[in-house]
Structures are given as C-alpha cells and as structure tokens.
Amino acid sequence: MSMATLVDIPFDKRHTCWFCGEPSNLSFEYPAQPPTPHPSLTVPACKECLQLARKHRLTSIWDCRMAVKDDLLRLYAKHLAIGINWTPEELAESEFSCKILSGFRENAWMMYEIARDRVNAPGWPLSLDGVLLDDHGYTAGFSFDGLDFRSVNAAINHYGNSLSLDKDLLAKLLGLLGRERFGHAVRLCRMHIGVSQEMKRRLLQDIAEELASD
Ligand SMILES: [Zn+2]
After folding, report:
1. Which pLDDT does position 1 carry in this prediction?
2. For 48-80, what is each residue's pLDDT tens digit?
3. Of 2, 4, 163, 198, which is the most buried if we count CB atoms within 10 A?
4. 24 CA distance to ligand 1 centroid (A)?
5. 182 alpha carbon to ligand 1 midpoint, in Å?
6. Which domain of life is it from (predicted)?
C-alpha cells in the first residue's frame, strides 16, 4: 500500500503527466527523506517521465522535475532543433515541393511541437488535501559557491564533470543530506573517487543510519 498521498489534481489536468503534460495513467511516488522540504507524495506521470524521475529524486520533487526536463531536452534535442531552423511561416514560404513539405509538416514539425510542449509544460502548483506546498525557493534555481545554476541537477552535472565525480553518488548523497549541504556532499564524493560500488553503497548506508540516529 502506498504511503505517499496523491497530490491534488485540477479538474482539467486529470490523466495528465505533472512533468510534461502528456496523457498519463501512471504515477510517480516521491518518498521524503529527513531534509526533504515536503512530505512524501505521489504525482501523476507518463511512462517516460516516470522512468526519468526515478533516476533523479534529488532533494525535492521540484529538483526532480527540473532534472526530468533536462533529460527530455537532451533526449529530444534533434526534434527540438527543427524549431530553431524553421518557423511555420518560413516553412510555408519555402520552395519545398508540396510533397516534401507536407511530409515534413506532418512528421518533423509535429514531433518538434510535441517535444517543445513537453519541455515547456508548466505542471501545476502542488497541494495536498487542499493545502498548497511551499516550494521554499526550490523552483528558482540553485546557487553554490558563488555560482548560480538553473537547477540542482545542473550543479550536479557541472561539478560532476569538472571534478570527475560520480554524479549518481552525488545525487544520492544530496537526497540524504539536502541541498543545503551541497558542499559536504561534493567533499564526500571527492573522497570516494574511483572506489568500488560496494564502498559507495556502504557510504550511503552509513550516512542514512547516521542521520536516522540524530
Ligand atoms: Zn511526462
């Protein structure tokens, strides 16, 4: 049985993915850790966003959502690039033969619009049993060490790449420690570069136990 309450769903958003706005009949459960700024909760999700969200629980449902969008952007980069190259007006004025153009319109342009709308889908403000959740600024980007990032996921990618850290380990540590302790999580990762998966698993377990005993 699920422990995580389903968020309130506006009438016009029933059967809609909270992440991307596509039709959905699945749901994504976000179990709260001690530093998570909201209770455990469940949001409706489409199949693809559900899989992406499970990889990026991070420090809140809002961080998770930004990371899903980052993945959608990456996965659909080719489709999205069509919009950079052509506007519908340019397409209409272009000298493509009708056959080429209509094929392009029906397929590529439609793929572009679907991908664009999924990345841009705003979702809706989260509330549980009618009580709006305060996002504590989690949707407004993330700053660390004088650098401003679009999201905590962007910060993970930046430090993961520049310091050759295990991004998955960093993300999991942040889930346990909270984004306020980003520097601590980075230091722990630096101390565990190149160690075995088993040691990383033990590190996460030790930290979870330590936090539970506080
Ligand atoms: Zn989705």
Report:
1. 43
2. 999 999 999 999 999 999 999 999 988 988 888
3. 4
4. 7
5. 28
6. Bacteria
State the alpha helices, DSSP H only, in the chain: 47-55, 61-75, 77-85, 88-93, 98-104, 110-120, 152-162, 167-177, 182-191, 197-213
- Residue whose entry in the numeric block shows the structure tokens 């506007």: 87
Look up residue 93 and give its two tokens.
Answer: 């004025």
Q: Which two tokens stand for residue 52?
A: 């992406």
Average pLDDT of the segment spanning 182-187: 94
Give residue 54 CA to ligand 1 midpoint distance, Å. Answer: 12
Burial class (CB within 10 angstroms; exposed 0-12, middle 13-18, buried 19+) of 106: exposed
Tokens 């539970």 correspond to what residue? 212
Reading the block at residue 195, the tokens are: 């160690």
Asked if pLDDT for residue 81 goes beyond 90, the answer is: no
Helix (H) or strand (E) holding 122: none
Instruction: For residues 133 and 206, give the distance between their C-alpha atoms in angstroms, rounded to a whole number.
Output: 31
C-beta separation of 121 from 21 below 8 A: yes
Task: List phi, psi (to 5°) of 137.
Answer: 75, 10
